[in-house]
């Protein structure tokens, strides 16, 4: 029996998970892999690449000499992630399915299945780190700032962290590509996947319209002047520019238009031009609070992100009913209800919550 233990790597068919498996082998672990299929819709336009990804994952597993398991978690994904995703959009909010997918699928259903196969832990190709302090697990940002994915992992709990490994947390994406090339892995130059977790890159509005009915309404400016019609508030998000298709002739300014708000009661989409003050807010209220470790004392001075890849912003977190209110040092652009606000102290991810509303005081 391997003294370091048996690890099952979530092998996606991409370069990151391929190198995660490689690194664990080099570190001396007993390694197996598992390919998850989580989306079962027929894909006639080539956006879902599960068949190609499985083929690439098998080639990587063969190259590394490890066993590849394959399983379909589509029913779990639909029930635990996608139905919530649709319901949030129906309410005019903008959910983050990747956050829920990590909590419910990768670090719950996959973890449970891997343990049933005899694994001691699972591993993924996330750029994040796990440490321990006084017996408590901490989630830390990956050392490669440009790839850090701790934002998407903030709903993990102590048990999930205790059973997980992130081999890429200490290295850069450049290092990952170099290792893949050095070991002649077929994924070395494969393009990174983007888009909705497990669903892939699509025209987002068109994709949603296959599941949600159109509810046309008016697009208006800050003064209530009609500009054009929209197809439904569900198909837009705060701060959006692309896809509005508002050309010249609607104002004297050449600056681009952005979504500033959704008026659910009147089914109106409010748009503004340029760096407009209506795009900025300094406070937000939350729900569904989750702390990764022992809840900190409030009020708390820390940093927060309201979206992935945003630089951490100084803020104060205070109690607000059953959840929190976040007061930023500087006004934040395009705070979006339904998205996650994630809290940090330096490189330690403390947890996060769902943004419920932007306050105007």
From TrEMBL:
Task: Give the UniProt subcellular location, in the record's own words.
Answer: Cytoplasm
Q: What is its EC number?
A: 2.8.1.13
Single annotated GO MF: tRNA-uridine 2-sulfurtransferase activity
The residues listed in the UniProt record as binding ATP, with positions renumbered to this chain, are 10-17, 36, 125
What is the official name of this protein in its record? tRNA-specific 2-thiouridylase MnmA
Q: Which NCBIfam families match?
A: PRK00143.1, trmU
Its job: Catalyzes the 2-thiolation of uridine at the wobble position (U34) of tRNA, leading to the formation of s(2)U34.
Enzyme class (EC, first level): transferase
The family assignment reads: Belongs to the MnmA/TRMU family.
The UniProt record lists the keyword Nucleotide-binding: yes
List the catalysed reactions: S-sulfanyl-L-cysteinyl-[protein] + uridine(34) in tRNA + AH2 + ATP = 2-thiouridine(34) in tRNA + L-cysteinyl-[protein] + A + AMP + diphosphate + H(+)
Query: Region (Interaction with tRNA) spans which residues?
Result: 147-149, 307-308
CDD domains per record: MnmA_TRMU-like
Query: Cross-referenced HAMAP family, in alphabetical order?
Result: tRNA_thiouridyl_MnmA
One short Pfam name that applies is tRNA_Me_trans
Broad class of where this protein is predominantly found: cytoplasm
- tRNA-specific 2-thiouridylase MnmA-like C-terminal domain: residues covered: 282-355
Region named Interaction with target base in tRNA: 96-98
Q: Which organism is it from?
A: Candidatus Thioglobus autotrophicus
Q: Which SUPFAM superfamilies match?
A: Adenine nucleotide alpha hydrolases-like (SSF52402)
What's in the GO CC field?
A: cytoplasm
Signal peptide interval: none
Tell me the active site: 101, 197
Instruction: Keywords in alphabetical order, please.
Output: ATP-binding, Cytoplasm, Disulfide bond, Nucleotide-binding, RNA-binding, Transferase, tRNA processing, tRNA-binding
Q: What processes does the entry annotate via GO biological process terms?
A: tRNA wobble position uridine thiolation
**Keyword Cytoplasm listed:** yes
Please list the coiled coil stretches. none
């Amino acid at each position: 029996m391997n003294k370091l233990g048996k690890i099952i790597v979530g092998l996606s068919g991409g370069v990151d998970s391929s190198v995660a498996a490689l690194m664990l082998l080099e570190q001396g672990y007993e390694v197996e892999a598992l390919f998850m299929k989580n989306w079962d819709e027929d894909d006639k336009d080539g956006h879902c690449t599960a068949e190609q990804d499985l083929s690439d994952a098998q080639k990587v597993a063969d190259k590394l000499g490890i066993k590849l398991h394959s399983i379909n978690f589509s029913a779990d994904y639909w029930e635990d992630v996608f139905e919530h995703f649709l319901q949030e959009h129906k309410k005019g909010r903008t959910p983050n399915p990747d956050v829920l997918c990590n909590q419910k699928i990768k670090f719950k259903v996959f973890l449970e299945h891997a343990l049933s196969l005899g694994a001691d832990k699972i591993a993924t190709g996330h750029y994040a780190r796990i440490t321990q302090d006084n017996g408590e697990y901490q989630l830390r940002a990956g050392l490669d700032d440009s790839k850090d994915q701790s934002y998407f992992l903030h709903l993990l709990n102590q048990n999930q962290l205790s059973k997980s490994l992130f081999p890429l947390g200490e290295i850069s994406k450049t290092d990952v590509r170099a290792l893949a090339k050095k070991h002649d892995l077929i994924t070395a130059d494969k393009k990174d996947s983007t888009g909705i977790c497990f669903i892939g890159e699509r025209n987002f509005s068109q994709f949603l319209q296959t599941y949600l009915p159109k509810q046309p309404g008016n697009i208006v400016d800050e003064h209530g002047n009609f500009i054009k019609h929209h197809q439904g508030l569900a198909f837009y998000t705060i701060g959006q520019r692309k896809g509005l298709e508002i050309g010249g002739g609607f104002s004297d300014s050449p600056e681009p238009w952005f979504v500033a708000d959704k008026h659910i009661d009147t089914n109106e989409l409010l748009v503004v031009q340029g760096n407009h003050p209506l795009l900025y807010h300094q406070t937000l209220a939350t729900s569904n609070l989750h702390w990764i470790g022992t809840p900190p004392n409030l009020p708390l001075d820390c940093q927060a992100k309201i979206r992935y890849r945003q630089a951490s912003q100084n803020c104060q977190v205070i109690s607000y009913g059953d959840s929190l209110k976040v007061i930023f040092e500087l006004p934040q652009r395009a705070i979006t209800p339904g998205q996650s606000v994630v809290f940090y102290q330096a490189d330690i991810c403390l947890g996060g919550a769902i943004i419920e509303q932007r306050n105007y005081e």
